């Protein structure tokens, strides 16, 4: 049956500093492990005061140390920002510390603005080398050869599984050509979702890592006891997207009662286009939404983002989502048996 996983933004809020964001992420991962989520990923972002996961590998070690079985990984590392050997060293170290639990999702975008790209000592042209960098990284995770002069210590032999992330058809084509699992970022770029999945599946070439296509779909899900409360909680994310359009990437803000007072019609249209596939509502609404998305995409896994301001409310949302998914699985099994 399809799996559920979590992409956490490691949000710094108006009431929580970076240390609090790290500890909240670790606490959420521990709960997610008990609730049956398969993976817990965080993403590399830079120069964003409200997102504390810039040093992604360090944050992942903090999270992995507070859990036992859930897979922990990057969703993703923006590979053009780094030399592949550095990422191999970091994630090879994680794999040695937490064997069999580390994933490495790779993105081609810088994950930041152009000024910060320069501060990272990279160039926008670095993304042109993305396919070659992926292959180089993969080679560093393979067992070292007898005449291999450069090794990523202690990565050699860990064979950390790689994923290709994407928000367009480019990543789908690359993942298919390399025979790697593919994760589509429909939680912020839903427009090309179905086209990308079709390209990936139709062009997939088996590899040593993966024999057949494997698809993960990102989706925003906000769950609460009532639909009204879920819609109110969702205003935190809606304000974050609005602020992004305004060029003001600040701290996460508490929800408000009327989002229409916050954004302009143009900002609303922009935000809702990016959030078009969001599922917001009670447990029943979430169950129906998850079932519909699984049916439409035939995804092997959903990567859920529940961007909620209050940590307790966020935990409750993920608990309700897991329960809704369990109900969907139970109904599906019953239908198969019948």
UniProtKB/TrEMBL annotation:
Species name: Bradyrhizobium lablabi
Pfam families with a match to the protein in the record: Bac_luciferase (PF00296)
Alphabetized PANTHER family for the sequence: LUCIFERASE-LIKE MONOOXYGENASE
Superkingdom in the source lineage: Bacteria
Name the UniProt record assigns to this protein: Luciferase-like monooxygenase
Family label: To bacterial alkanal monooxygenase alpha and beta chains.
GO function terms (MF aspect): oxidoreductase activity, acting on paired donors, with incorporation or reduction of molecular oxygen
Domain Luciferase-like: 6-300
Assigned GO CC terms: cytosol
Gene3D superfamilies: Luciferase-like domain
């Amino acid at each position: 049956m399809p799996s559920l996983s979590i992409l956490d933004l490691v949000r710094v809020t108006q009431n929580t500093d970076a240390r609090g964001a790290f500890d909240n992420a670790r606490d959420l991962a521990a709960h997610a492990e008990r609730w049956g989520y398969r993976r817990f990923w965080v993403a590399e972002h830079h120069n964003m005061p409200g997102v504390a996961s810039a040093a992604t590998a360090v944050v992942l070690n903090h999270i992995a140390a507070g859990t036992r079985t859930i897979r922990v990984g990057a969703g993703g590392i923006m590979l053009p920002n780094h030399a592949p050997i550095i990422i191999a060293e970091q994630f090879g170290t994680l794999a040695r510390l937490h064997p069999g639990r580390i994933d490495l999702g790779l993105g081609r975008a810088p994950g930041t603005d152009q000024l910060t790209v320069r501060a990272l000592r990279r160039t926008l042209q670095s993304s042109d080398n993305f396919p070659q960098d992926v292959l180089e990284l993969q080679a560093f995770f393979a067992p070292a050869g007898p005449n291999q002069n450069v090794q990523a210590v202690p990565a050699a032999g860990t064979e950390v599984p790689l994923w290709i992330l994407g928000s367009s058809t480019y990543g789908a084509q690359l993942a298919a050509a390399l025979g790697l699992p593919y994760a589509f970022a429909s939680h912020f770029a839903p427009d090309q979702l179905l086209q990308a999945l079709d390209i990936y599946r139709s062009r997939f070439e088996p590899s040593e890592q993966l024999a057949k296509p494997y698809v993960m779909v990102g989706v925003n899900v906000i769950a609460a006891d009532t639909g009204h409360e879920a819609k109110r909680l969702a205003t935190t994310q809606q304000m974050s997207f609005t602020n992004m359009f305004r060029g003001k990437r600040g701290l996460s803000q508490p929800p408000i009662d009327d989002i229409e007072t916050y954004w302009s019609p143009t900002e609303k249209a922009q935000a809702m286009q990016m959030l078009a596939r969001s599922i917001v509502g009670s447990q029943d609404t979430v169950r129906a939404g998850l079932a519909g998305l699984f049916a439409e995409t035939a995804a092997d896994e959903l990567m859920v983002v529940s961007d909620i301001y209050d940590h307790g409310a966020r935990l409750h949302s993920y608990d309700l989502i897991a329960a809704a998914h369990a109900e969907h699985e139970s109904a599906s099994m019953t239908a198969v048996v019948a």
